[in-house]
Amino acid sequence: MADLNLQAIHDELVLVAYEAGRMILSANPADIGTGTKLNSVDIVTEVDQAVEKMVSSRLSTAYPEFSFMGEETYKPGTKLGPEPTFVVDPIDGTTNFVHSFPNACISLGVAINREPVIGVIYNPYQDLLFTAIKSHGAYMTRIKGSTPQKLPLATSPRPLEGLANALVAIEWGSNRDGPNYELKTEVFKKLAATKETGGAMVHSLRSLGSAALNIAAVAAGQMDAYWEGGCWAWDVCAGWCILKEAGGIMAGGNPGQWDPAVDERKYLAVRGAPSGQKELVEEFWGVIGNGAMDYSV
Ligand code: LIP
């Protein structure tokens, strides 16, 4: 495939993101049809499906040679290939959307050789756009048309000084029983507990309800880390590129995995910092202990 113009692809994804934002804002969640997938909390709506259809139609016209991996048309067992692929979540934060809670986004990623190289995340409720192209930095645009701010937002990010000084993003996800759930909830408890009781005493835990927005907040330096198992490549691909371009790192959600795959389904994102990243990852893995999440099916 001839040298790709990543800037042109990025620019098209930004236009697509704003179009998706208009679709999301024009829907009235109280009136839309919803269904469920894995269980009663794994929700899909007709708006998710309509947005993904618009996205895939526009992108397959503009880039017919690209593959497409979207949440609503994903065939279980499909692996992310090496070819240029759009990796798309039409509405990340569907539960928030269904409840009219104003925090959801479209997540548009491009992976080449299974590496995130473009990321575009747009939260229409806040008119907040996060973008990145590999080797060209990450940016946040607060209001459409305003001057993008380079990420991380701090011109001199503070060093990371361990979990006891960290604001950590977590998610409950849609798996609510079994060994993965038991491990996750045990880790949540230990993260928040006092050191005297064997905990990490984090500043606090936050759940934005969207993997993409959690990762974007870590990239911006608004949170220090995000840990989740069970989400998918389309939840993290765009944010991954934005995070890396903002100096952050993406480690595995299980101990010892320093180089996770985009479709690994177990992630630990850490913000950019002049020091302390590796130490924070290792401290976090220490909280997990000998546990390991398994999302191989
Ligand atoms: C969501 C993810 C979130 C996860 C939820 C859900 P969706 O994606 O962003 O991290 O905890 O279970 O998968 O379904 O809103 O696109």
UniProtKB/TrEMBL annotation:
Pfam families: Inositol_P. Mg(2+) binds at E71, D89, I91, D92, D235. It catalyses: a myo-inositol phosphate + H2O = myo-inositol + phosphate. Pathway: Polyol metabolism; myo-inositol biosynthesis; myo-inositol from D-glucose 6-phosphate: step 2/2. Its cofactor is Mg(2+). The keyword Magnesium applies. InterPro entries: IMPase, Inositol_monoP_metal-BS, Inositol_monophosphatase-like, Inositol_monophosphatase_CS. It comes from the Eukaryota. Its EC number is 3.1.3.25. PROSITE patterns: IMP_1 (PS00629), IMP_2 (PS00630). GO terms for biological process: inositol biosynthetic process; phosphatidylinositol phosphate biosynthetic process; signal transduction. It is an enzyme of class 3 (hydrolase). One of its GO terms (molecular function) is inositol monophosphate 1-phosphatase activity. Keywords: Hydrolase, Magnesium, Metal-binding. Belongs to the inositol monophosphatase superfamily. This is Inositol-1-monophosphatase.
